Amino acid sequence: MKLALKPFTEKDIPQFYEWMKSESEEMLTFIDGVTFGRPITIEGITNYHNNAISKKWLSFKFLVDGEIIGHIELIRLDLVAQTSAIGYVYIRRDRRGVGFGKKMLELLLLHAKIKIGLKYLDLLVGENNNPAQHFYKKCGFGYSGKTLEKGGTNMLVMYIKFKY
Predict the structure, then answer these.
(1) Using CB atoms within 10 A of its CB, is residue 160 exposed (0-12), middle (13-18) or buried (19+)?
(2) CB 164 within 8 A of CB 46
(3) Residue 114 half-sphere exposure, CB side, CA atoms within 13 Å?
(4) What is the largest CA-CA distance in the chain?
(5) By the 8 A CB rule, do 102 and 87 touch?
(6) What's residue 71's pLDDT?
(7) Cys staple from 70: which of 4, 36, 91, 129, with CB 3.0 to 4.6 Å?
(8) pLDDT at residue 127 above 80?
(9) What whole-number distance in Å separates Cα of residue 8 and Cα of residue 14?
(10) Per-residue pLDDT for 50 more than 70?
(11) 18-35 pLDDT, tens per residue?
């Protein structure tokens, strides 16, 4: 099985939109409506993507044997402080539950540590999103003790420090 992260481009937006349209209402509650808008539209995703480019975020699609099945990104990249944050993490609905999310995150962590030279990554996760919290803990993230409010949702800050 060949796994890869490749840059997410504007031509990937329609496919990402189709994935979002197929999500259950429950899953959509975990996807930030402030960022993509509600209802989620191609225009909202395009605006988000263009904003990410202008901020020099690194957005990736995740491929398994050449098939795109996920999306992940590094945001707030600070090369001087050697820090960044993980933005959206998404695995296509029909490919969940078999370890691809973990594989995608592992590839991103390797890229952040080895290719970029980062020392620290954090992320936001909804305080009620227990499945995601459990997933990130399994992947080596810990709780920072900080909480933030984003779009009316309380978010927990989780982080990982790389050992060199």
Answers:
(1) buried
(2) no
(3) 6
(4) 44
(5) no
(6) 94
(7) 91
(8) yes
(9) 12
(10) yes
(11) 888 776 665 665 565 556
State the CB neighbour count (10 A cutoff) for residue 131.
9
| Residue bearing tokens 């927990």 | 156
Q: Quote the pTM value.
A: 0.87
pLDDT for res 119: 97
For residue 148, which of 72, 61, 93, 76 has the smallest C-alpha distance?
Answer: 76
Across-strand partners of 156?
Answer: 125, 147
Q: What is the spatial distance between Cα 68 and Cα 20, in angstroms, rounded to a whole number?
A: 14
Take residue 25 and report the two structure tokens written for it. 């209402």
Strand partners, 83: 78, 120
**Can you tell me the distance from the alpha carbon of 149 to that of 4, in angstroms, rounded to the nearest whole number?**
33
Considering Cα of 3, then 45, then 82, then 159, what sign does the dihedral take?
A: negative
User: What is the number of other CB atoms lying within 10 angstroms of the CB of residue 88?
Assistant: 19
Structural domain including 18 reads: 3-161
Length of the chain: 164
State the CATH number of the domain containing residue 62.
Answer: 3.40.630.30
User: What's the gap between Cα 27 and its chain centre?
Assistant: 15
Domain total in the chain: 1
